[in-house]
Amino acid sequence: SAGERLPPQIWNAWEAAGGHPILDGLGCSELVYMVIGNTPQRRRPGSSGLAMPGVELRIVDEAGTILAEPGKTGRLEVRMPSVCAGYRVADDKPSDPPHQPEERFRPDGWFATGDEYLQDPDGFYHHRGRTGDMLRVSGIWISPAEIEDVLAGIRSISETAAVLGESEIGLAEIVLYIVPAPGADGSAAVAAARERLSRALPPYKRPRRFEIAHDLPRTATGKVQRNKLREQLRRDPH
Question: To pair with 236 at 20 to 30 A between CA atoms, which of 25, 118, 141, 176?
Fold first, then answer.
């Protein structure tokens, strides 16, 4: 789905409109190849799929401990023959060894993709966000995807992005940016989001603040630049 996860509501709607099966997956440049994928035989809307042949996957916590229990969100690490040797910069000499940042390259051959994932009881992997985009509120980790996926399909909302901000007294709080659908009223979009969230999520996972935006900043490959939204909050905190 070109840089962003594909929520099940959009997956199903796209499939119904196009008449062809959707096969989403995960790959990255450092690994050359797709490492997780849905197949015509086994697929699950909203997931990235299953481990591809020849690929080892594990989900670990911040300390590197393997999270073997299904449903636990953690950092995705991959081991396979095609993991790149490292990174080079423009002024490197040909004889210089590739750079291997320790936050990405593990001594035992595992590579950290920078993605947060969980594995369901059937083995399907579900993308929960980028590692730096996870939301920590009152000591509890919350995935932006949990919030944004709930709002997919609301007619008055085009897209959303949840980021971490600060309350007036300096406590961490979830801020939700909402892009209203063309012709939709911003206040109505916020009201629809509040109503849906109140039914679908417990209070600690609900945004405390809502911001209306004309669009969301994106990279050249279409990924939402949450860091720019966080910078905007720092410039205009309240």
Answer: 141
